[in-house]
Each structure stands twice: as structure tokens, then as C-alpha cells.
Amino acid sequence: MNNALILIIEDEPEIAEIIGTYLSREGFRTITAGDGTVGLAHHLRLRPDLVVLDIKLPGQDGYDVLAAIRRRGETPVIMVTALAEDLDKLQALRIGADDYVVKPFNPLEIVARVKAVLRRTMGRGSGQMLRVGALTIDPQAYRVAVDSAAGPVTLDLTRTEFRILAHMAASPGKVFERSELVDACLPESEALDRTVDSHVSNLRRKLAGVGADGLLTGVRGVGYRLDDVHG
After folding, report:
1. Are 10 and 34 spatial neighbours (Cβ–Cβ below 8 Å)?
2. Are 99 and 80 in contact (CB under 8 A)?
3. Could you tell me if residue 116 is inside a domain?
4. pLDDT per position as a tens digit, 99-156
5. 1 partner at 20 to 30 Å CA-CA among 25, 98, 123, 174?
6. 146 is in which domain, residue-wise?
7. Distances (CA, A) of 74 to 17, 50, 123
8. How far is CA 200 from CA 50, 70, 230, in A?
9. Do 194 and 212 share a domain, yes or no?
10. Which pTM does this prediction carry?
């Protein structure tokens, strides 16, 4: 883990240097970017193991950069910002941040947070099997099985239905907004929120058909949740 590559996207050179120095002392490799455009280019080319991301950046702000990273995959992201309002923190977490640190901070805290997030997320995007309640999801084989009294039953899902289910299964119990599911699961399309409703409706019907109708539920005015309920 200590050889992990950390991308630091921070427009204040002194802060970027401090973070990089402390991470390097712990054996991490680091690279820095002073704005979101360069940061996203580094992310695409270098595929870092974790991103330390400032919110207030020139051009694209940190929220936009975080959303772009999430459309690409599940790279862990720690937000570092002077904004301490709960709404700012919730916004970052809603988009998909893994942690959040407020300036001014102790650099040792950044190191500790990086280590904690890497421990928690290592292997998250490696194609490992996901299990939520009665569901077993194989990301590599694009296969979903539901436990039943007679044994596992394989669901016949479209590619988009699978993407939605697998994305939600990575964070069971979390409420996903429709727009978030569009960004994560249909990034190349012109999909609208109602398109997600259609895919989720089909998913719920297929789950109900094998006795797993209580797993995927709607949250009025917000979106959808996949509950870790054992049937």
C-alpha cells in the first residue's frame, strides 16, 4: 500500500508541496496538478491509487473533477477544502468522495486518512464478487445470482441493468439519486432521469420474479436504495 501513487490536485503550491512531502516520507509516490484539467489528464494517463482533491480550483471546481473521476470509475478521493459547511461536505459525499478534510489541517492527518481510505477501498474495482443480501454479483462475468430454497437462480439482465445493480451493490444501504446513476452507469448516453426509472423498474420486476422483491426500493423524491437484507 505504501508504494501507492497519490494524485494531489491543489492550486496552492505550498499546500500541495506539504501534502506531497509528508506522503513521500511514508513511502507513497506522488504527483501534483494545479488545476482540474491537468488533474483529470494525470488521472486518465497515470491511473493513481488515490486522489487528494481541493474543492476551490481555477476553472473546473473540485465537485466537477470528482464527478468526472466517478464517471470513469471508483478511484478513491479525499476532498481537502477550506469549506467547513455541512452542505459542502454532504455534496462531496453525495457525488462520491470517500473522505473529507477541512483546512487548516495537520499534514499527519492527511497521511492517516490516505492510509485508512486505501485500506478500506483496495480491491474495490478489481472485479471482486459482491454480495448483498440474497444477491451474488460477479462483475467479471456480468452475472447475478439470487439465493433461493432450490439453489442460486441466475438473473437475465441487460448490460445497463447489470451496471446499475453492481454500482449500487458497492454501497449497500446508500440512497442513489437518479442523476448519480446516469453519470455512473450511462455516461456515454443522453439518458434522462426517467430512463433510469425504466431500467430500475425492470430490475425490480426481475428481482421480484425470483423472490427478491424487498432488496431494491425507491426513496420518494430522492432515488433508489439497495438494502443488505437477507431473505
Report:
1. yes
2. no
3. yes
4. 888 888 899 999 999 998 888 766 555 556 888 888 998 877 778 999 887 788 999 9
5. 174
6. 130-226
7. 25, 10, 10
8. 31, 20, 20
9. yes
10. 0.55
